[in-house]
Amino acid sequence: MTMTNLPLLDSFGRRHNNLRISVTDRCNIRCFYCMPAEQVKFLPRAEILTFEEIERLVRLFAQVGVDKLRLTGGEPLVRTDIDRLIRLLKGIPQIRDVAMTTNAVTLARHAERLKLAGLDRLNISLDALNHDTFLKITRRDVLDQVLEGISAAQEAGFTRIRLNAVAIKGLTEAEVLPLARFAWERNLELRFIEYMPLDSEQNWADEKVLSGAAIRELVEHEFGPLVPAPRTDPAQPAFDYLYAGGRGRLGLIHPVTAPFCGTCNRLRLTAEGKLRNCLFSLEEWDLRSLLRQGVAEPLILEQIRTCVAEKRPGHLIGQQQFERPERTMHQIGG
Ligand code: SAM
Ligand code: SF4
What we know:
By secondary structure, this protein is of the alpha/beta class. The chain is built from ten helices and twelve strands. Strands 7-8-9-6-5-4-3-2-1-10-11-12 form a twelve-stranded mixed β-sheet. Helix 1 packs parallel to helix 2 (about 80-90) and helix 6 packs across helix 7. The longest helix is centred in the middle third of the chain and has 14 residues, at about 175-185. The mean pLDDT is about 95. The structure holds S-adenosylmethionine (SAM) and iron/sulfur cluster. Iron/sulfur cluster binds near residues 34, 35, 74, 75 and 330. Iron/sulfur cluster binds near residues 34 and 329.
């Protein structure tokens, strides 16, 4: 191994092999925990990385140990011909897993193309099955399209579909059991994630977080004791559980009440090519400028290493020193 392809280790010994790529900051809905309701300022097209630029960067990341990718946004399916990007990324020999997180609003018409392009896994965001609650969260009446999208993904042959639900106190408690039943019946994995301070209206507060522990209690009340599943990947953020009957899997991600920063292996590339070492990073490293200035690849790799080296031990949510990043979730890539 030469100096230039040493893995991306930070100063706490965390090895980074997982890159989340935001392909756009645009979205077709307006979840309140992620985006403003009105007058969202989107990036001009010319500022957004082209597919070829993303591919060039991923080839560099792959040289230094990145082998897992997730496409996100904004809503990745609003980017035209996203299947072309998937094909480019799947053509990189070191990349063993390309996943996507989507709100599934338009998935019904994309699912087959995504599967054919080689997309390995899909995470679908669904916080509520009740129309009113769904509308309150997303500010768009598109629950039926999302449900159609889920069915289409299953029909297209995606087998490892995971539902992601943000857990918000005072709003989604009543959704926990219907979502758990829906996922169980449809053979989908379900993960609840605690609401994080990345909303644009700055309304987040500690007491609005519906904790992983509270969700576990709700689910166990109906389904019986949950059995912790063996942790096959120590870097995975979720604590997974199996239902007592043996079928079905439930994950709880508690970034707020029990942070998993100690095993974090993720880097994030924003739609305009800024590299972040954490969702809550206060600094970013501009890779797009280097690419567009024609800077030599070893120097771009050096910038990537600097970003990793400067990663802090954790995000400090809930502590006095916590500082919210300026960007909201849709501008980072969830
Ligand atoms: N538009 C796609 C979607 O919603 O699936 C991908 C981007 S979205 C930013 C990625 C994930 O972040 C979604 O599952 C969303 O629910 C989650 N998310 C957004 N804002 C959040 C917040 N403030 N706290 C916790 N999760 C959040
Ligand atoms: Fe759009 Fe996803 Fe943000 Fe909701 S969470 S506004 S679907 S980017």
